[in-house]
Design brief:
By secondary structure, the chain is α+β, with helices and mostly antiparallel strands. Helix content is about 55%, strand content about 20%. A 5-stranded antiparallel β-sheet has the order 1-2-3-4-5, with helices on both faces.
Length: about 200
Amino acid sequence: MKKTLALSVLLLCFAMSSLAFAGVALDTVKANANGVLDVLKDPKLKGEAGKKVKEQRIELAAEKLFDFVELSKRTLGMNWNKFTPEQRKEFVQLYKKILKDAYVDKITSYTNQEVNFTKEVPLAENMVEVQSVVVSKGSEVNIFYRVMKKGEEWKVYDVVIEGVSLINNYRTQFREILGNNPPQVLLDTLRKKGASK
């Protein structure tokens, strides 16, 4: 699965390489990421007291950068249609909390890695992939942001880290729960998981 995803991304890069360019989507993602990096590097925010402020600022940046409704819809896939409007709203909030709990600690443990934004590759009309590389102690990690234009804004709807899509990763987990259960069971599971943090 991981190899297939990585190969797909690689083939897409070759196919679209002649169309690659830097544009508004890349600038939007880069500006938000640099804003987070500035917070992480701020010497006034060291220690436990600073950690709380860092987390709050990262959450604010995530709210500006991500389209959590689109991310939720794509993660659930066809199962999105089984949810009532109220269940969808609750799912978006619970999923956002799960992602926050999974990633904020990792982000706040940042230790001066270098982040290079390399290019923007068109995926479809109003959809692009912003590619970046995180360099740390001689190793490189590819992080690609899939971005969609809604109105005048570019918003991230998926993140692919070393060939593994955030959407696909969680879709597999949620699909297993929804296979033989109604949406309420998934919501109960996410509520319990969120409450345990």
